[in-house]
Amino acid sequence: MKTFKIRFFENRKIFFAISLGIMVIGLIFNVIFGTQLDIQFKGGAEIKYSFDGKIVQEEVEKIVQDTTKKDVTVHILENVKSSDGKSVKNNVSISFAGTESISVDNQQAIAKALTVKYPDANFQVVSSSSVNPTMGHSFFAKCMVAILLTCVLLVFYIALRFKKIGGMSAGVMAVLALLHDVIMVYFTFIIFRIPLNDSFIAVVLTILGYSLNDTIIIYDRIRENRRLMGPKTPYSVLVNTSINQTFTRSLFTAGCTFSSIATVFIVGQVYGISSVTTFALPMMVGIVTGCYSSVCIAGPLYVMWQNHKAKQKAEARA
């Protein structure tokens, strides 16, 4: 197999700068727009109505607030296809934060008030759901614990499997690369104004497994090349060689997976299935950043750490 001759370790500052630049952009969006939590995490209620024609988001918010005397968040989705694909409707999602669910009478009152303002819109309830805030916060905390526990277990797994190449340091660097992926997925939700919900947790856990698999392939090649090239081979040469040998495989795997998820995203967009698109879009970003971090972040970080340890040993002997 033909291998590329890319000096990954020597170009590490470029790779780190790219990641930091994207993080800064995401942080700016986060400061400006804040973090939106879905009712699954913050608690509250949500009603979704279908309607015809055009409505104005600000007007809908004022009408609902005047009717219910509660703060609301309104999102409008246009040209949403039905499940059978034969009809197209516009949907408006109305979210309420708080502890009380929205009764049927309130739903009807909202629809009536909206109908007065938009008599030709034909508002109809599509779905209604509510979550207790305590349960929502508890669910969010458990999800964060699951992610943290996953990272800890991954460190120990890599430490045991790759003891011959500095297992613990390899595990820590791999998890740092995984945290890079988690941050990128988080900023995807922020930049595209997608509320954090169970899709966020699903994407994060999926990307952790996907990115780790790619990193382990590289570590396995490093371990094999350490045996073939000898213990005196510099870590930068060892890692550059190993990454170049697995680079084509990483690209092909990421490309195939990205194409599959992109197809799912397109289908979700065409049929207006928001639960699909809010999962597929961050997944597409996660696949790209997972491949990137495995190749451009984990390897150089590993070399930097090994060089640091070698320098400390040399200074101790001196």
From TrEMBL:
Membrane topology summary: Multi-pass membrane protein
Keywords from the UniProt entry: Cell membrane, Membrane, Protein transport, Translocation, Transmembrane, Transmembrane helix, Transport
Ranges where the Protein export membrane protein SecD/SecF C-terminal domain occurs: 120-307
Subcellular location(s) of the protein: Cell membrane
Gene3D superfamilies given in the database record: Multidrug efflux transporter AcrB transmembrane domain (1.20.1640.10)
PANTHER family: PROTEIN TRANSLOCASE SUBUNIT SECF, PROTEIN-EXPORT MEMBRANE PROTEIN SEC
Record protein name field: Protein-export membrane protein SecF
Gene name per UniProt: secF
